[in-house]
Structures are given as structure tokens and as C-alpha cells.
Design brief:
Organism: Melia azedarach
Number of helices: 17
Bound molecules: N-(aminocarbonyl)-beta-alanine, zinc ion
Largest sheet: 9 strands, mixed
Strand content: 15-25%
Low-confidence stretches: 1-12
Number of strands: 18
Protein name: Dihydropyrimidinase
Distance between the termini: 81 Å
Radius of gyration: 23 Å
Shape: globular
Helix content: 25-40%
Mean pLDDT: 96
Amino acid sequence: NDLFCEAGIEATSSSKILIKGGTVVNAYHLEVADVYIEDGIIVAVKPNIEVDDDVEVLDATGKYVMPGGIDPHTHLGLKAFGTEAVDDFVSGQAAALAGGTTMHIDFVKPINGSLTAGLEAYEKKAKKSCMDYGFHMVITKWDEVISEEMEIVVKEKGINSFKFFMAYKEYQMINDEILLEGFKRCKSLGALAMVHAENGDAVFEGQKRMIELGITGPEGHALSRPPLLEGEATSRAIRLAKFVNTPLYVVHVMSIDAMEEIAEARKSGQRVIGEPIVSGLVLDDSGLWSSDFVTAAKYVISPPLRASGHNKALQAALATGFLQLVGTDHCAFNSTQKALGIDDFRKIPNGVNGIEERMHLVWDTMVESGQISVTDYVRLTSTECARIFNIYPRKGAILVGSDADIIILNPNSSFEITAKSHHSRSDTNVYEGWRGKGKVEVTIAGGRVVWENDELKVVPGSGKYIEMPPFSYLFDGIDKEDEKYLSSLQAPVNRFKLST
Ligand SMILES: NC(=O)NCCC(=O)O
Ligand SMILES: [Zn+2]
Ligand SMILES: [Zn+2]
């Protein structure tokens, strides 16, 4: 549970690795094959590869060899809620690697609205990275400077997504006018618009209502922002994205209400991506009612965990294609930080852990239970994220030429989650005591074995910043839809023009 990266424990493994005899799984195909890696790149995937003695050989017989997980939604070292998240790019990444995630995409928070200032700060935070990472950018205000900065970060800094908060009225909520401006700018740059979808004005009202009733404990958090407020904002964002005709990504889908809005939009042909997070998939709101404040407060996240039933519906939507990939929203605070809200739930820092647990919990809950196939697992935890953020097949695949970010998962082995044994700096874990089947026994990141025999061997500074180019597949054909729309307006445009 120490800081492995800071301790400077060097990876000992060779730059040439052969993974022998495992079942190699990609998003739409699996086969028994060997995987040969040299200098961080996969150079061969086929049966019976012969190698020299200087090659490290890992036996994967009876195990799955899969692309490392990609977590599309993390907040490492986030400064918010009057404090700073405990997991930074050192401990958060150590945790990720121990859980089979080899890349994450973190949200850059602007400084006084400035994107470039925010990005500089995050570049510093990420310097000691021991795994690959990318950035999304948050938009907190709107003017010509921000609009120009958006172009710079897309064209020069490798960022292809922007998030808009429809909640957090006191900090960073934007209104519909800014949402529209932002969506238009995203579209012109080929960048993906993302939303935290809750009606922030109504949440503010709901919070006042709870405080007036004397409900100050963690349960007040969930009671003040019910699913209908998530459904309303999701529906509004979807409709505004349709009006602009740009793709939309809804982060942390926590309720049936939001999920059904996404499903309806997708059924009508709209390009909307829905990202459930692992806490929303496997937990419910019951923990918020614990009589012990530390226990209850650890479950505070926005949008909140919902009543039992929402989680099962989100799992079903993920299994059947209405939702597309799984994130974590990893934003860990320890119990002393959560205690900032001991007298008022509005002051409890929002966020839960998950970066280390996601791969195991999705396996246990979705594959082990029989809801999805092993190939689906790879698609939902890795490949689809790489496609959406336009880095496939460099990431998200075990193909010749792909980065050697690989896990070996033993389906017959088991795992247990505890705050004592996890690698996060948090003193609590929202999945405390969870036991399940399917264990990530080996993690290879950037061609090095970084997790093996329950031990981390990571190299600070070895993680690379992954530039993500604009105009992912989600933008294909958007121009044709625009042309259709414009030609449908020809008749009214010409209606009162005199014929010459
Ligand atoms: N989700 C949450 O409660 N904390 C992190 C910030 C956000 O994603 O809203
Ligand atoms: Zn959020
Ligand atoms: Zn988040």
C-alpha cells in the first residue's frame, strides 16, 4: 500500500516478452495463440512462436490474454470541493495497473477558465506517470479566448473531447447558451462533446429543501438530486446535440431515467454514447443510509448511487448495446476529507474509488454472471474507448503493431477487495469485502511486466502522453446529414424570392 513509483522500484522484466498458450481476446474474436512483444510493441500474434533464450516467457495456458483496460473517466489529483483528491498520477496509476488498467483519460480542470493554464498544471501533475494517459478538457465559461484555446488544444495538444458540467451551480455549471456554443465549437473541431448531466438549478433547490427539513446527513445527497433531474439534463443535452448535429458522450450514467433517454436517442439514429461507471453498475444507495458517517459519506458521488434496480437496468443496457463502455470516475477522498461535510452533506467531497476495481468487478458482474461474452468484456473495458477517442488500434487491441498493453486474467482464480490491500491512498473502499472470480494475474504496460505475483514493478516517468486526434468515427457522415438538413431548408429560404 506504499508509493511504489516514489520508492523507485524498477521494472525488472525484459523488453522482449513471449506470452505463451493463452486465449487471446479481441473485441470481436478470440483464439488460442502466442503473443510476442518487443520494445513496447506487439510484433506477432500466432500459435507456436519460437524465441531465443533472452526472451522472458509467460505461460498463459488456460488464461485469457486481453488488451489492458482503458478507463475513460478519472480525476487524479483533482482540486475540488475545498480539497484535493488523494490519488494523484502516482498512486492512482499504481492502483490502475494492479487492477489491469493500462491507460486512463483524465479531465483537465481549467484555471480561472483558462484551458492552457489548466493543461500546463496537468502536464506537471502527470510527469511521473508510470502508465499511458490522455486528457479530456473541461469548459467552465465561454468567450472568444476559450473558443480559440479549444482550437489550440485540439490541433496542437492532442485533446479531442470537451466536458460541460450541467450541475455544480456554485462552481462550474454552464447554461444552455454556453452548451450550444460549446457543442458548435466541438463540432467544427471534430471534438467530442461530453456532459455531466444533472439539472444544477433543480439540484440546488433540492439541496435547500433537504436542509430546511433538517436532513443534513449523506442520504440527503441522494434525496436532493433524484433520477428525474439526471433524466431531464440528459434529455436536454441530447436534444441540443441533435439541434447542432454533433455527437454526444454522456459521462457517468447512473439512472434508468438517463439510460432510457440515451437508448431512445440511439434508436432514432442519433450518435450518443452512454458511459456507466462501475460504482453505478454494481452498487446502490443503501450505503448512504449507514448510521456510521464515515461509511455513509464514502458513497457520496454525483450523480448519486440510485435505489437498487437502477444498477441491474444499467447492466442490462450495457449487455444489450444501449450503453457503450465502462468508466470509473475515480475521484478518491479519504475519510477526513469526507468529514468536511459531517454537518452538511453539501460539503462532502463528491467521488468514489474504482480505477483498481473496474476490470475485476465488470468481469465478475457481467462475464461471470453470464450477461456478456469475453469478447464483449474487451470491447466494453478497452476497445470501444479506444475507438471513441480515436486511438484504435494502437490501443484497445492485441494486434501486430498495437502498443503492448496487455493483461493476463485467470478465470479460475479469485479476488477480494479491501482498503487494507488496495493501492489507492484512500483509507476506505466502496467495494470493501467484495469477493469474486476472475483475477488479473499479470499486467504488461508499454511492453513491461508491471504487475505479477501480486507485486507492482513500475517505473516513474515511463508512462506516455497519448495524443488523441479529432474526427473519430463518430463524425463520419455528419457532413452528409448537415447537407440534407440544409437542402430541406431550400424551399423556405426561396419561398418569397421573386422569380426573375
Ligand atoms: N462524480 C463525482 O462525484 N466527482 C467527480 C467530479 C464529477 O465527475 O462530477
Ligand atoms: Zn461528473
Ligand atoms: Zn467525473
